[in-house]
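Quick review question:
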């Protein structure tokens, strides 16, 4: 008996304590399972994001290659126009049988 408590404490029911501990253990198992599901979802999400980023990089590389091919084609066309213009200028010279006058 305590000075603050007029009667002695009642003994704890071990069955009730076991039930509380069992509930606690089950709650911890559910929390662990939920955490595992979150980790798995994060891994799947990461894989999905990585796949999307990979596809984006691939499409970007394809677009850049296409742009480079178009630029090279424009440069070749400009060079060819320059060559044609130079040949036309040469053919206009009197030494090549031309009139010597430039076309405008």
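Suggested answer, residue by residue:
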């Amino acid at each position: 008996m305590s000075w603050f408590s007029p009667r002695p404490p009642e003994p704890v029911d071990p069955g009730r304590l076991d039930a509380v501990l069992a509930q606690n253990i089950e709650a911890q198992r559910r929390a662990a399972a939920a955490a595992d599901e979150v980790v798995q979802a994060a891994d799947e999400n990461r894989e999905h994001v990585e796949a999307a980023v990979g596809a984006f990089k691939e499409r970007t590389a394809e677009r850049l290659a296409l742009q480079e091919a178009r630029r090279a084609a424009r440069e070749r066309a400009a060079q060819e126009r320059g060559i044609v213009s130079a040949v036309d200028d040469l053919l206009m010279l009197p030494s090549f049988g031309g009139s010597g006058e430039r076309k405008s």
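Why it works: The chain has a mean pLDDT of 86. The chain is about 75% helix and 0% strand.
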